[in-house]
Structure formats: C-alpha cells, structure tokens
Amino acid sequence: VVHVVYFTGDPAAGDLSYVRRSIVGRYSAPVRVNSVEGSAIAVGSVRGAQTAIGRADRLYVVWQGWDRAN
User: Read out DSSP for 29-68?
Assistant: First the structure.
C-alpha cells in the first residue's frame, strides 16, 4: 500500500489531499486533509508533508498552515 499526500491550489492558500494506492494498483478517491479549505501554504521554506501511519492505518499529517485555519 502506498499513501500519498499532495498539495493543490494557490501556493498562498491551497489544500492538501490524500490518496491511497492498493496493492493491485487502484487509487482511492482523493480526500482533503486540511479541515479549512484554502488554509495550507506552499511558500517560503515549506518542503512537504510529514506523515505517519498509526494504529488501524490512521494517517497523521503535519504541514505548514496559516491563521485562516483558526
């Protein structure tokens, strides 16, 4: 299984999406990761998502955001 987190949209106000690729090569439907639309940023020193898989295959994602998420 491959877990993919990717950025889309304006670098100053975009979104993170997540897809999962199964062992047979099928991709899941994309799911937005950030809870507030347009709150992820990809400017400055942002180098990508930090991810971890927890119990029961729960995905944890850390990414640079801005105050629009508050």
Answer: PPEE-SSSTT-B---TT----EEEE-GGG-EEEE--B-GG
* CA count, 13 A, side-chain hemisphere, 6: 8
14 vs 52: CA distance, rounded Å: 21
Query: What is the greatest pairwise CA distance in the chain?
Result: 40
> Which residues neighbour 21 within 8 Å (Cβ) at sequence distance 6 or greater?
1, 2, 4, 27, 28
Q: Render each residue's pLDDT in the chain as its tens digit; 70 residues.
A: 899 999 999 988 899 999 999 999 999 999 999 988 988 888 877 677 889 999 998 889 988 777 655 4
